[in-house]
Amino acid sequence: MAEILVLGAGPAGISAAYHAGKAGKETVLLEARERYGGLCDHFHKAGFRFDHAVHFAFSKNEAYSALLEKADLITHRPEPYNYEQGRWLKHPVQNNLYPLPTEEKVEAIKSFIERPAREEGSNYRSWLYEQFGQVIADRYPARYTEKYWTVPPEDLSTDWIGNRLYRPSLEEVLFGAMTDDTPLTYYLPELYYPRRGGFRAIFDPLVEELDLRTGKEVVRIDTQRQVVECRDGSKEHYEHLVSSLPLPEIAKMIDNAPAPVLEAAGELWATAIALVSIGLKVPQAGDHLWFYIYDREILPARGHAPYRKSPDNAPEGCSSLQFETYFSRYKPLPMAEETLLEHVTGAAEKMGLFKTSDLAVTDCRILPYANVVFEKGMQDKRRIILEFLEKKGILSVGRFGEWDYLWTDQCYLSGKKVENLPCML
Ligand SMILES: Cc1cc2nc3c(=O)[nH]c(=O)nc-3n(C[C@H](O)[C@H](O)[C@H](O)COP(=O)(O)OP(=O)(O)OC[C@H]3O[C@@H](n4cnc5c(N)ncnc54)[C@H](O)[C@@H]3O)c2cc1C
User: Fold this and answer.
1) Does 408 contact ligand 1 (Cβ within 6 A)?
2) Residue 402 domain-assigned (yes or no)
3) 371 lines ligand 1 (CB under 6 A)
4) Whether 362 and 232 share a structural domain
5) Is any ligand 1 atom within 6 A of the Cβ of residue 236?
6) Which one-letter DSSP state was computed for residue 184?
7) pTM above the 0.90 mark?
8) Does 192 map to a domain?
9) Residues 104 and 235 reside in one and the same domain
10) N or C terminus of the chain with fewer C-beta within 10 Å?
């Protein structure tokens, strides 16, 4: 019997298990896959290491910063780029319009000046118009939204934005239209990445201390008898249960969950990623650490260069790229994975990132949970499930357990909430 049983060995579950263990509790961590790390894990192919999409470390919270201090990290300046119709623009576009033709700059600036006043309760598209004017909004962030969130911006609420989008002054827009010598305005001053071992290496020191059981996919939870059942038939009894599993999944695993909970679970949805990874037998692939792609006819929304995050991610003399194509129940992947691989390599070659003759290895795989979508009304459905879990004595943590747009540092803190369980006080 585990005093504390934790489900899912991503950052949130690892953090929960670590903090429970540290407090002297008999703790067991169950993970469906054969590896820990969840979205922060990686895979290897022909000597290349690829993370599960672009991942950098950053944090304003003390606990996670203390964890980062233990790691050997490379520091990166956050200088992403934007690709559109053969042009590379600095990020963010709104205050880096310099490469555009003069007439297009004038049109964009005019629309910025004429942008509508802020209205309470607006959707994401009107929020974008209010911040950047219609021309910039429609051409860049709105188009990106359709690729990244898989829905038009008018379908999204605005409560996930925080400081993610830079809101420039008129002076900054004008300055960035006249010169490309603009200051860094990314919302984080520095990004970090482990020198060795990929992104998940940040968590390695914690995992060493855990009773982690992999290959344990949880399929059923009996909250009455306090037993968790795995697909392999094994059972684990618990005194307290902490879960980082996605809310729509866990709701269906609990015996006799009421209809409104199951209904809410059926309506919550997240985007998925088709991840195309490319290893190259040349030392350089493009010029940028990561970049956003606005062209509709190129399916990925974002690409990055794993070998630039750390040279440890590619064999000597080689380079690598990875592309994220988002899809969902509202925007299915329009082609088979094999065809997507061809589409992405073809598009990347046209973008000038490499030549097909440089290819060493390619890979396409699906990550079923990427970003929870802040559709209007989502918060109510989430609340129904979270209240139900609380009633059943389950602490739900992490990006898909809280059903929120959480970064890794926030998931680490979310898992640390295990310290607030009455049995821990
Ligand atoms: C494209 C992308 C880029 C990102 N970039 C960054 C970044 O640069 N910096 C940053 O800080 N954060 C980034 N994030 C966010 C970060 O990946 C997540 O916040 C974090 O990994 C979530 O941790 P978690 O433990 O909550 O969930 P997960 O990492 O999803 O872990 C959940 C775990 O539960 C397991 N599981 C699921 N179902 C079961 C089951 N039935 N039984 C047992 N186990 C199960 C899964 O296999 C998984 O291991 C990014 C996310 C995405 C999608």
Assistant:
1) yes
2) yes
3) yes
4) no
5) no
6) P
7) yes
8) no
9) no
10) C
Angle between the N-to-C axes of helices 141-148 and 124-132, in degrees from 0 to 180, rounded to the nearest 10: 150
Ligand 1 binding pocket mutation candidate from 6, 18, 34, 55 (most atoms within 8 A of CB): 55
* Mean pLDDT confidence for 200-223: 97
| CA distances, 377 to each of 320, 369, 383 (Å) | 40, 20, 10
User: In angstroms, what is the span from residue 272 Cα to ligand 1's centroid?
Assistant: 12
User: Ligand 1 center to residue 265 CA distance, Å?
Assistant: 19
Task: Give the pLDDT confidence score for residue 122 in this predicted structure.
Answer: 80
- On whether residue 340 sits in a domain, the answer given is yes
Does the beta carbon of 148 lie inside 6 Å of ligand 1?
no
In a domain, 339, yes or no: yes
Dihedral-angle region of residue 315 (phi above 0 means left; psi in -120 to 50 means alpha; beta otherwise): beta
Q: What is the pLDDT of residues 52-70, one digit of tens each?
A: 999 999 988 999 999 999 9
Atom of ligand 1 nearest to the CA of 402: 26
- How far does the centroid of ligand 1 lie from the alpha carbon of residue 127, in Å? 28
pLDDT over 90 at 99, yes or no? yes
Q: Provide the pLDDT for residue 158.
A: 86
Q: How far is the CA of 10 from the centre of ligand 1 (A)?
A: 5
* Average per-residue pLDDT for the chain: 96
Q: Are residues 56 and 97 located together in one domain of the fold?
A: no
Could you report the per-residue pLDDT of 260-294, keeping only the tens digit for each?
999 999 999 999 999 999 999 999 999 999 999 99
Do 347 and 277 belong to one domain?
yes
Q: Give the CATH number for residue 213.
A: 3.50.50.60
- The predicted structure's pLDDT at residue 286: 94
Range of the domain at 328: 272-367
Number of domains in the chain: 3
336 in the same domain as 322: yes
How is residue 7 written in tokens? Answer: 């489900």
Residues 381, 360: one domain? no
Burial class of residue 3 in the structure, from the number of CB atoms within 10 Å of its CB (0-12 exposed, 13-18 middle, 19+ buried): middle
Please write the tens of the pLDDT for every residue from 112-144.
999 998 877 789 999 999 999 999 999 999 999
